[in-house]
């Protein structure tokens, strides 16, 4: 992985406050003839298992690939609470102990920008069956549409924290479907064929506590020293607490689906 950020430092908050994607995404997959029931799927950068559980609810046999052991522990605890049986491999995405041609799909939710992408693409090509899919998803809140987000950013900047795109998201300015445009060229050069791409706008509701919890897990906050982080969170809580709850925050996810040609 590139541009290392230690999400293991915030594994408890990550498990509790990182939001799931809306269920409509699976209806959008079905409209494009993409089904997960009975399929073998590996989720790269699985974190606390958010998308692993979503895939399992769709009937997939899921393996989560995650380099932070504390996040795997958090994922297993949540899996047990929800009655899921998901296998996890403590590994980076660039080298995965799974057999060749063993997967129907490889997914990456909010993770592709942390990888050594060319190395991961070699692994993806090794692991996918013919006509297997690589599905890359990113989701973000949209600060320009949210007074709460803009107020939060102002406070964070006052404490000297640089707000910048996560990992490789800032490599180039040009965007396609809100992904860096060079990713599409990399996918094509690796031999994968773009099958579908789309975006979806949605709102999520937060209490002030939940919003602050999410802020703790963002890449530009994870490595801030604890004392300064607590002062930032206290200031955000203090300024937002008079607002009526829930706080409605606009979000957007982007999806790109590539197929391994037969």
Automatic annotation (TrEMBL):
It holds the Pfam family Methyltransf_11. Coiled coil: none annotated. InterPro entries: Diverse_substrate_MTase, Methyltransf_11, SAM-dependent_MTases_sf. Keywords: Methyltransferase, Transferase. GO terms for biological process: methylation. GO terms for molecular function: methyltransferase activity. Its EC number is 2.1.1.-. The keyword Cell membrane does not apply. Residues 43-136 form the Methyltransferase type domain. Belongs to the methyltransferase superfamily. This is Class I SAM-dependent methyltransferase.
């Amino acid at each position: 992985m590139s541009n290392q950020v230690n999400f293991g430092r915030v594994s408890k908050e990550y498990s509790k406050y990182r939001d799931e994607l809306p269920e409509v995404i699976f209806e959008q997959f079905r409209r494009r003839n993409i089904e997960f029931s009975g399929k073998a799927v590996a989720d790269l950068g699985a974190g606390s298992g958010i998308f692993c559980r979503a895939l399992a609810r769709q009937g997939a046999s899921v393996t989560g690939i995650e380099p932070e052991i504390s996040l795997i522990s958090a994922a297993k605890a949540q899996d047990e609470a929800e009655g899921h049986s998901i296998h996890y491999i403590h590994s980076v995405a660039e080298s995965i102990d799974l057999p060749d041609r063993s997967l129907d799909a490889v997914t990456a939710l909010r993770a592709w920008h942390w990888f050594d992408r060319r190395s991961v693409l070699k692994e993806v090509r090794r692991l996918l069956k013919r006509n297997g899919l690589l599905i890359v998803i990113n989701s973000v809140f949209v600060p320009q549409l949210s007074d709460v987000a803009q107020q939060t950013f102002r406070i964070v900047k006052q404490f000297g924290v640089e707000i910048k795109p996560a990992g490789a998201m800032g490599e180039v300015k040009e965007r396609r479907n809100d992904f860096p445009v060079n990713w599409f060229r990399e996918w094509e050069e690796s031999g994968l064929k773009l099958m579908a791409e789309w975006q979806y706008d949605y709102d999520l509701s937060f209490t002030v506590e939940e919003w602050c919890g999410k802020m703790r897990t963002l890449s530009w906050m994870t490595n801030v020293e604890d004392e300064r982080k607590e002062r930032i969170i206290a200031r955000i809580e203090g300024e937002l607490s008079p607002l009526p709850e829930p706080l409605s925050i606009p979000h957007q996810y982007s999806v790109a689906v590539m197929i391994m040609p037969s």
